[in-house]
Amino acid sequence: MRPTVHRVRAPRRGLQITAGLLASHPDQPLAERAERLTSAGRLEGIDDGERSLRATFDQSFESLPPLQAELFRLLSLSPGPDISTTAAALLTEQSQVATEKLLGHLATAHLIERGTVRGRWQMHDLLHEYAHKQATAQCERSRPSRRRYDQARTRLTGHYVRTAEAADTHLEAGRAAVAPLFTDREQALAWLDAERENLIATAHSEGTTQTALRLGFSLGSYLEHRRRLQDLLTIRSLALDACTARGNTLNEVNAWNNLGTALREVRRFDNAIDAGERATTMLVAEADWFRTGKAWEELATTLEAAGAAPTHIKEAWERSAAYTRAGATEAAESSRGHVDGPRRSGPPRTEHVAEAAGVFLAGGPNRCGAVRCGSRCAGRPVPHTDRNTSAHSLIALGSSVRSVRGPGRLRRRRSSARPGRR
Q1: Cys-Cys with 242: which of 124, 208, 341, 419 at CB 3.0–4.6 Å?
Q2: 28 DSSP 8-state letter
Q3: pLDDT tens-digit readout, 384-416
Q4: Main-chain dihedrals φ then ψ at residue 2, nearest 5 degrees
Q5: Is the separation of the CB atoms in 205 and 214 below 8 Å?
């Protein structure tokens, strides 16, 4: 039979030892005692010579049966303040019934606590630190142990990401297809409410991984809906960091746009405008006119909220409309090309879209943007049968160049823009 061990609640024992230390040294400032606890480590620092918090934890942990001890170590892989029975079962790869029984034994041993909601469990931060040390020691013993813990962490984070993305489908307005994991919007919101802190903690702990990126995008609608604006700003910043670190330029544009919206919500207008301008610049370089129009719409909304000059606001809305029209034109031409059959290489009439954007920008202050759009159009290879289109693009480019660099370069551009015969 395993010997009976007297177990006490970890926070209570820690307070008892700390109170004894302060009583024995009444002249010691609290700041000095706190600094010693930090420098020595909280577990090792709570020790009055006769009683040690680390020794108390060791005594309780060493009395656990193997399955309970393994679950205790595995719980340290959860970065949030609590965990559900479902998530804990993923760590152990056992059924929820078996896992709940093990969790109940740990609660009886005062190593975890039952949450205020049934099926949720909490671990004091000192015990979480202790469990992490035990898990680290276990991983260092053998490669299979390290692999087992890595796989457990992957199962947990994968669960959070997939379920958050499924819940997000119920929050997007006008979305026809929703994930069947949740029966309705209210159930999805209930899960997100329960796991919010765990999801944000997971995104933090994952740094610049794909997990942080996916959580950064999937939690935005929920946090905005609940008006958790500081959390929204945090998650949008994490998504941008992940996109930048991973060289994910396509999603980086969305991340800048999302960050600008979040900054606007917390009234950091200067930063929001900078983020919006970064998004529009990147989208123009990609010649993605629909998304550029949407980015200019967000930027115009930010300028209005910031109380910018009416001329700047009007110009932003006009650019949004122009890019949106250009995107519609490109989509219509592309659709017509699919019906009539291919007439030229590349997306049908894309050069006309670039030309339209270039002409529009040339009418505003961003003349260099017009030159870039025109250069993209003029430099696109086109078949001999479409030489007139290429010539028309070069002429439009010449108009932009004239406003930027004067007539000298313009003459060189126009001399090469001689329409070919059909």
Answers
A1: 208
A2: S
A3: 334 444 444 444 444 444 444 444 443 444 344
A4: -75, 130
A5: no
C-alpha 175/C-alpha 170 separation (Å) is: 8
Name every residue whose Cβ is closer than 8 Å to that of residue 16 and which is 6 or more positions away in sequence: 51
d(CA 306, CA 297): 14
pLDDT at 106 over 60: yes
Judge whether 388 and 320 are in contact, CB under 8 Å: no
Spatial separation of the C-alpha atoms in residues 127 and 54, rounded to whole Å: 10
Residue 264, CA distances (Å) to 228, 276, 291, 381 in order: 14, 10, 19, 42
Secondary structure class of 82 (helix, strand, coil): strand
Say how far apart CA 118 and CA 356 lie, in whole Å. Answer: 61
Contacts of residue 98, Cβ cutoff 8 Å, sequence gap at least 6: 89, 92
Contact 197, 81 (CB under 8 A): yes
d(CA 331, CA 308): 33
Burial (CB count within 10 angstroms: exposed 0-12, middle 13-18, buried 19+), residue 26: exposed
- What are the pLDDT digits (tens) for 325-379? 888 887 777 766 554 444 333 333 444 445 445 544 544 444 455 445 545 444 4
Compute the average pLDDT of residues 225-253.
Answer: 94
Classify residue 261 as left (phi > 0), alpha (psi -120 to 50) or beta: alpha
pLDDT digits (tens, 9 = 90+) for 29-72: 645 545 554 544 555 544 444 456 677 788 888 889 999 999 99
Separation CA 237–CA 258 (nearest Å): 9
